[in-house]
Amino acid sequence: MCGIFAYLNYNVKTERRHILEVLFNGLRRLEYRGYDSSGISIDSDLSSDPDVKSRQPLVFRQEGKIESLVRSVYQEANTIDLNLEESFSVHAAIAHTRWATHGVPSPRNSHPQSSGAGNEFLVVHNGIITNYEVLKETLVRHGFTFESDTDTEVIPKLAKFVFDKTNDEQGGQAVTFSQVVLEVMRHLEGAYALIFKSSHYPNELVACKRGSPLLLGIKESTQDVNNGTPFHDDKFLTSKGHPKELFFSSDTHALVEHTKKVLVIEDDEVVHLKDGGVSILKFDHHKAEKHGRLPRPASVQRALSVLEMEVEQIKKGNYEHFMQKEIHEQPESLTTTMRGRLIRGGSCKAKSVLLGGLKDRLKTIRRSRRIVFIGCGTSYNAALAARPFMEELSGVPVTMELASDLLDREGPICREDTAVFVSQSGETADTLHALEYAQNNGALCVGITNTVSSAIARKTECGVHINAGCEIGVASTKAYTSQIVVMAMMALAIGDDTISSQARREAVVDGLFDLPNKVREVLKLDDEMKDLAKLLMDEQSLLVFGRGYNYATALEGALKVKEVSLMHSEGILAGEMKHGPLALVDETLPIIVIATHDACFSKQQSVIQQLHARKGRLIVMCSKGKASLVCPNGTCRVIEVPQVEDCLQPVINIVPLQLLAYHLTVLRGYNVDQPRNLAKSVTTQ
Ligand code: M6R
């Protein structure tokens, strides 16, 4: 999805070339989110015309990869003789990666979008403006002409309209930049994070958000200012004169190499960077409702947080691709997920788990009418994998909801429900809307996310952070296995008061302790999966059959294959085989059957026999040493995986399928980390 980035240097002498590089690098860090075009705006050289006192903003936009924007900027700079060595002690610049929603990818539809000639107001936007057509009609009536097909273009034009109108009404008495933006916000509907730059307010930036994520990063040369303590804008302004660099970004990845001090901007906040200070205004909807009038902005106090993230996490290291790195680091990511949460037990203490973010809510969850797992894509699959164990240990019925489907149906959720929201990014629009819906219906809302301070982490009443580390490849891999482990731990915590299941719980705790080692073992199948990928690389389609604990593995394995290798693939519940899918079986279509040892094993043996009888082209995944039980006459290909406690087996079984998807993609020559049309964080519905 779109990524926004901005850089403002204050009293830090910076060459134009450096400013450009900071912007390009910011965009490169946001690249993983998915995009099809990009753009930036910086200031021009000072005009030789004495009447033009300020520098006009320059805009550069390009379709395609960031490197093509980089090339075009330097070419154009050369053509217009832009001095790249010119130094600025203060300068405000904005940048954007666009994931097309309105209008095809093209320079004209890329951001920054402009108010018109002279670029009086420029805007970069992540999200969707739902009432843009009405706004556009009004602005056209006031003489504005539109150049793009985007929803965003109404925003800078509206800013110019508000600026001109307010200045006329106030008889030239200056309106501030944040006042203009506040007024613009009052007219916008939809989801957005925005950054404004304007020739009327040189060296200032204003950002605001409603729905889409946005962070401010602060790099100061003085050490003591506001580190981890709340700051009021007045207090913060005491450091006004201090040299500093300020950054806005859609996520932490573009900030961490500059600073770890960040402010997570909240909905309805307007952040104004001016004269080296930061001021924050917020619409107070609550007060406005109480007094029955339109919301008014008030100055707010906020605390900076310190990022717990290292630059290395966002680099590929010795790997070719992020997806490959993330698959191979699963032994470590699982260890981090479980760190400090598993209790080994002792002479008088049972083996158990401790989930700090849930412990005060366990009683309420146990008393729930049902637990509803809600998510999208891989996160939904992870919850599906955890469902049987959650039902077994909690004794509470567990139902599954794809977030978008729950919203389409407006399915019943009530105050006796515990709704568990599962999301790697914590920013997925469908999941966020489902959260809002469940909250309005009074359910207890629990979050399971990988992103501290994400919207889902902030808006749920309690939850568990999966601690898998940054996941950059669009295909979710290590987050999936960590999500399953978190939900298994959650089931253990919920079932902790039941004596009859103690032996089972202890066996699962032992299994969790050993899980990273077993994942290390299954990763040794890498070469074998590469060979299998060579065999399958020219196929049109691949089916994956699973059931019980591994129905989710079939869905997730197929999702991985289709999203990155662009090969059609379908995960099928083996119990449904005779109700339709069997018609597809012949000697050419490759079928992976997951038949590791658990309570469903004999049923899977029967599935294999039936597929075999129809000359199916089978690849069977089985527990180590059990090949002869799944393929007695040696005619099918077998993938042998280490056996673990049945409810943890999905964590092991998905790994060979992740490797297969990865190798298929490389062999078929597709982009592994940024698959066609997909975005890492789906922040629009
Ligand atoms: O960030 P989330 O976990 O909420 O994202 C949900 C899906 O968009 C995501 O899992 C998607 O299916 C991945 N590309 C799968 O690899």
Features:
685 residues, 35% helix, binds 5-amino-5-deoxy-1-O-phosphono-D-mannitol, alpha/beta, 8-stranded antiparallel β-sheet, 24% strand, 3 domains, Rossmann fold, Glutamine Phosphoribosylpyrophosphate, subunit 1, domain 1, 7-stranded antiparallel β-sheet, 21 helices
Description:
The chain has 685 residues and is an alpha/beta fold. It has three domains: 3-311, Aminohydrolase, N-terminal nucleophile (Ntn) domain (Glutamine Phosphoribosylpyrophosphate, subunit 1, domain 1, 4-Layer Sandwich); 317-497, 3-Layer(aba) Sandwich (Rossmann fold); 523-650 and 657-671, 3-Layer(aba) Sandwich (Rossmann fold), CATH 3.40.50. The chain has 21 helices and 29 strands. The strands form six sheets. The protein has an eight-stranded antiparallel sheet, covered by helices on one side. The protein has a seven-stranded antiparallel sheet with strand order 5-6-7-8-13-14-15. A hairpin with a 2-residue loop joins strand 13 (269-274) and strand 14 (277-283). The longest helix is centred in the C-terminal third of the chain and has 21 residues, at 502-522.
